[in-house]
């Protein structure tokens, strides 16, 4: 397929929806150590739908607070700036991820449900392995397959060729995708993350979530997303065409110091975590 096609698709990435200014502003406020809760609340209140999502999530069983949270500032105090940043991003990408993706045999909302599941499990694993910023893991898990939204059109055209390759050569969908198109959805996702000016560790986690052993910037973060992704697929969440032939990378397990028993516990806990439907309603 050569470089011409790759360049063409990358040029399509330039047509990618840019992050809305309001979301950029919210992210900037959450990353500025001098910002106050009032600064953040003021920005969030300009967006009615984001305000209601934040309040809904703050009141969901996932956070389990005994009393009702009815102001953004209360939610911010309880949830923290980083969680608010995650929610703002999630509310933006949920629109991009809710379309049907025929190329990946994903129905309407499937990619969103799968991404939100992977994000929640990434955050949970991050806390379990004492990763310093679980919200970074949440965002990396949420965006790990964002490249599919761009590649869908091309995969759809080559769908049968890719599936035939998966079946005849017994290789993962990602490898077949790469052999037939010249590159894969993780690489395209990486380009989107660069376009959105995300930190290098996030760019890497999205680009290498299928091959954590190649990570050089933050192998722990990449390993967390890799394991969360594999658990999401194992659980059969909106599985789609590339949900077959998923394995846990020995590198990732070693990096996170996880034994088979730990893994079993993570898998059963993950089941419990995603029962709360409120987390998916963005």
From TrEMBL:
InterPro entries: HD/PDEase_dom, HD_domain, HDIG_dom, HDOD, RNase_Y/CdgJ. SUPFAM superfamilies: HD-domain/PDEase-like. Keywords: Transferase. Residues 111-234 form the HD domain. GO terms for molecular function: transferase activity. It comes from the Bacteria. Residues 16-212 form the HDOD domain. Pfam families: HDOD (PF08668). NCBIfam families: HDIG. This is Putative nucleotidyltransferase with HDIG domain.
């Amino acid at each position: 397929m050569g470089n011409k096609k790759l360049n063409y698709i990358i040029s399509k990435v330039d047509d990618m929806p840019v992050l809305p200014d309001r979301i950029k502003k919210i992210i900037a406020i959450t990353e500025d150590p001098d910002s106050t809760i009032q600064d953040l609340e003021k920005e969030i209140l300009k967006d009615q739908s984001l305000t209601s999502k934040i309040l809904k999530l703050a009141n969901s069983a996932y956070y389990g607070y005994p009393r009702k949270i009815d102001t953004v500032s209360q939610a911010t105090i309880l949830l923290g700036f980083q969680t608010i940043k995650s929610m703002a991003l999630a509310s933006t990408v949920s629109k991009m991820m809710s379309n049907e993706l025929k190329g990946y045999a994903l129905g309407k909302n499937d990619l969103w449900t799968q991404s939100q599941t992977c994000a929640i499990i990434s955050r949970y694993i991050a806390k379990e392995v004492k990763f310093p910023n679980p919200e970074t893991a949440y965002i990396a898990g949420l965006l790990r397959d964002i490249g599919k939204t761009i590649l869908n059109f091309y995969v759809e055209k080559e769908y049968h060729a890719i599936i035939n390759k998966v079946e005849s050569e017994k290789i993962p969908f990602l490898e077949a995708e790469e052999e037939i198109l010249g590159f894969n959805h993780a690489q395209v996702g990486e380009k989107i993350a660069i376009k959105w000016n995300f930190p290098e560790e996030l760019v890497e986690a999205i680009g290498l979530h299928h091959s954590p052993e190649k990570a050089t910037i933050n192998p722990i973060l990449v390993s967390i997303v890799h394991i969360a992704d594999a658990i999401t697929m194992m659980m059969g969440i909106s599985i789609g065409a590339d949900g077959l032939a998923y394995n846990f990378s020995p590198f990732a397990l070693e990096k996170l110091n996880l034994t088979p028993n730990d893994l079993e516990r993570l898998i059963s806990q993950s089941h419990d975590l995603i029962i709360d439907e409120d987390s998916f309603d963005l």
